[in-house]
Each structure stands twice: as structure tokens, then as C-alpha cells.
Write a structure and sequence with these properties.
Length: 130
């Protein structure tokens, strides 16, 4: 098994926050949950007992990194149709990165950005040896 195989199986926690001026015709949560592989791992974070500051528009997901390409495709298609933007916070272990998704963001580029940002955040910087 290669390192990339292992990384693809490690769980990733995502927080997706759509930003829009008016309520969208199709909610992002409903849009993603149309795909059965995401239905059991994605939930809305709003309501009682959630983290402070979360609104009903925030979605939480914990899934294998290997499922990110499909999820980013779904997110991109929703953003395109709603003509809005979204913020995606991705956490793998102690590493967390945030990406912005707009109508001009390519989902393959988003996946590459997420992968590179997670890799860079995991690697110790040049000052870590001091």
C-alpha cells in the first residue's frame, strides 16, 4: 500500500459555509445528499447544541479523502447554479486549511489546492528544527 493509498483512506472533516444574498432554490445540504455515498456522512451543523457561531447554512462532513473529488464536483455544480460562493474548511488530523469556492473555481483545481495545502500544513517548516 502506498502513502497516497493511505492518505485517501484517512478521514477528513469539512465545514462548508455557503454565502448567498438570497435563499437558494435548492439548499446545499439537499443538493449533496441526493448522492447516496454522501448522505450518511454529511449533516447540517445548525440548531441547538452546535459550535458557537455556526448557522443553519453550515454543513459538516467527515469522509475519506478519496471521496473529496466527487464532493468538490457537487459543490462546484451547486455554486455554479446558485451564482454564489462557499467557504470550505478542511481538517485532517491537526491540520486545517480554508478554501474559497466561487463560480470561477474549477473542482479539479480545488482538489489540487486542498491536497497541496494539507500537505504543506503537515510538513514542518524550516524553523521547526530550531
Amino acid at each position: 500500500m502506498t502513502d497516497s493509498d493511505t492518505a485517501a483512506r484517512q478521514p477528513v472533516r469539512l465545514t462548508i459555509s455557503p454565502r448567498h444574498r438570497q435563499p437558494p432554490p435548492v439548499a446545499l445540504l439537499d443538493w449533496i445528499q441526493r448522492n447516496p455515498q454522501y448522505r450518511p456522512v454529511i449533516r447540517q451543523a445548525g440548531g441547538g447544541g452546535g459550535r458557537p457561531g455556526f448557522t443553519d447554512a453550515v454543513i459538516i462532513a467527515v469522509l475519506a479523502q478519496g471521496l473529496l473529488p466527487g464532493l468538490f464536483n457537487l459543490l462546484q455544480s451547486w455554486v455554479d447554479q446558485q451564482r454564489t460562493e462557499a467557504s470550505v474548511r478542511i481538517q485532517a488530523g491537526d491540520t486545517e486549511v480554508e478554501l474559497q469556492v466561487s463560480g470561477r473555481t474549477d473542482s479539479a483545481h480545488l482538489l489540487a489546492q486542498a491536497t497541496e495545502a494539507l500537505r504543506a500544513a503537515r510538513e514542518p517548516g524550516p524553523d521547526a528544527a530550531d
